[in-house]
Amino acid sequence: MATTLHLLVPGLLTVGRSVVADPALAAPAAPALRWLLARAQARPVPATTDATLFRLFNASIPADADLPVAAVTRLADGGDPDDEWWLRADPVHLRPDLYGVLLADARVLAIEPVEAALLAAAFDQTFAAEGLQLRVPRPDRWYLRLPADPGFRTHPLLDAMGRDINPLLPYGPSAPRWHTLLTEIQMLFHQHPVNRVREERNQPLINSIWFWGGGACPTGVRAPAADLYANDPLTRGLARLANAAVSPVPEHAGDWLDSASRETDSLVVLETMRYDPAEDDLTRWSDHLLELEYHWFTFCRQWLQTGKLATLHLYPGNGQVYTLTGAARWRFWRRAQSLSVYVVPRT
Question: CB of 334 within 8 A of CB of 38?
Answer without folding.
Answer: yes
